[in-house]
């Protein structure tokens, strides 16, 4: 007989799987070139991804329902929202000439798939090892800043290469070092990103500057933390 714990555990898996529904909606919006709405859906998916793990651990979902792998489910959903839909947006968003856009899109999805298969993607301190395939964020900045096509392509290629290099990137929630600062900055970033999306990705210089400063911090904070740990 099914218990309340079993139903609750499966409901948590459904909550995780709802990220796939958000990915589908985001893709449909991207097909219609509704980029701001697409990024809003991808942002909601990030919130789901941030919440489902702690909830699953709190209610011991892996023990209650060992048949279903929460880790596998999470990877499937995350690949859709963090890599595949953003890869489609980069390919079709008019950021690059057609042939170059297709090439960069392929680079995004192939390197992203390889990264998600990496068993050593995180260090013991929960830093990401290599660029953590957050192509949703990378695509957001490409659409926000609209750099020249050569620079957009260069940014994609640099991040793709960083995927396989031993460079630390901070997980703002799970890394202990500087966690209060990281959490505060992520919250601020979320607020300003929402403003940007609400403004159809044209929020003005101040919001754009704040978003770029926070992004720069997270790009270098893993390296800075690693250096501080050696002192």
Dominant shape: globular
- Which stretches are poorly predicted, pLDDT < 50 over at least 5 residues? none
**Radius of gyration computed on alpha carbons:** 18 Å
Counted by DSSP, the helix tally is 9
**In percent terms, what proportion of residues is strand?**
under 5%
CATH topology: Four Helix Bundle (Hemerythrin (Met), subunit A)
Alpha carbon gap, first and last residue = 57 Å
Strands, total number: 2
Q: What is the makeup of the main sheet? A: 2 strands, antiparallel
Instruction: Summarize the helix and strand pattern as letters.
Output: HHHHHEHHEHH
Question: How is the largest sheet built, in terms of strand order?
Answer: 1-2
- Return the average pLDDT rounded to an integer: 93
Structural class: mainly alpha
Q: How many structural domains?
A: 1
- Approximate helicity band: over 70%
If you had to describe this structure to a student in words, what would you say it looks like?
The protein is 73% helix and 2% strand. The protein contains 9 helices and 2 strands; from the N terminus they run H-H-H-H-H-E-H-H-E-H-H. The chain has helices at 4-31, 35-58, 61-64, 70-92, 98-116, 135-145, 149-162, 179-198, 205-230, and strands at 128-129, 168-169. It has a two-stranded antiparallel ribbon. The longest helix is centred in the N-terminal third of the chain and has 28 residues, at 4-31. It is globular.
Short description, anyone?
The protein has helices at 4-31, 35-58, 61-64, 70-92, 98-116, 135-145, 149-162, 179-198, 205-230; strands at residues 128-129, 168-169. By secondary structure, the chain is mainly alpha-helical. It has a two-stranded antiparallel sheet.
């Amino acid at each position: 007989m099914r218990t309340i714990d079993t139903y609750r555990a499966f409901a948590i898996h459904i909550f995780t799987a709802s990220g796939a529904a958000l990915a589908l909606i985001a893709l449909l919006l991207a097909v219609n070139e509704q980029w701001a709405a697409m990024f809003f859906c991808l942002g909601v998916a990030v919130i789901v991804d941030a919440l489902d793990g702690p909830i699953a651990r709190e209610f011991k979902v892996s023990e209650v329902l060992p048949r279903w792998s929460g880790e596998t489910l999470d990877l499937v959903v995350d690949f859709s929202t963090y890599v595949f839909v953003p890869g489609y947006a980069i390919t079709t968003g008019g950021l690059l000439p057609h042939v170059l856009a297709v090439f960069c899109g392929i680079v995004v999805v192939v390197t992203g798939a390889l990264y998600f298969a990496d068993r050593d993607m995180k260090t013991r301190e929960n830093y990401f090892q290599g660029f953590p395939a957050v192509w949703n964020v990378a695509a957001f900045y490409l659409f926000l800043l609209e750099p020249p096509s050569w620079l957009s392509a260069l940014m994609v290629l640099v991040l793709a290469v960083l995927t396989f290099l031993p460079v630390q990137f901070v997980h703002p929630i799970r890394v202990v070092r500087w966690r209060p600062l990281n959490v505060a900055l992520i919250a601020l970033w979320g607020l300003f990103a929402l403003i940007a999306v609400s403004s159809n990705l044209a929020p003005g210089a101040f919001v754009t500057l704040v978003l770029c400063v926070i992004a720069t911090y997270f790009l270098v904070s893993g390296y800075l933390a690693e250096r501080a740990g050696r002192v």
